[in-house]
Prior knowledge:
Number of strands: 0
Strand content: under 5%
Order of helices and strands: HHHHHHH
Structural class: mainly alpha
Amino acid sequence: MKQNYLRLFIGAMFALNLLCAMPNEALAMNTVKGWINKVAPGTFATDQDATTDTGAGSEVSYTESEVKVLTALKDREAELEKREEAFSKRTGELKLLSQQIEQKLEQMRSLAARIETMRKERKELDEKDISRMVKYYETMSSENTAPFFNQMDRVTAMHLIMRMNPRKASAVLQLLDPKVAVDITERVTRFKENREELVVNK
């Protein structure tokens, strides 16, 4: 838009100089219209070619400097059109790329939601399994429970001990191998401290 205004402004200034320089007003006006139509086609409607003299029928010629100006303006217009075409093409490419990125992000968000759902379901199942195991071991005598805890994974043993009835858990710990009992007790203590720290820092 700015380039169009600039071209029209230059054309108007040039036309004004022509009007002032030419004694025949009708000839000058037609010549100016023809010149402006070359710069911006369709600006004026003329009855005949503005490059001819309506009074004498003689052809009006442009000076070398005028031809250079017209040529430069035409070249500049072609360059601007090329730039506009390249800009439009680049804009389309960026729009397409943006759409593709948004699709990928949507796929990632959907995948993350599915993973979170699966994680929650798995956690619920784990909690149910642990609850069932706690009930199972609580129904057993402490003497029968202790051998299982001696061979059990320490993390699993820790979660079971924390969920068991305190009296039952204490009785089981007393019957465990001392190293196993100490390890489980330390894990339970660290777990509770970390959990309390998380609650405080929320």
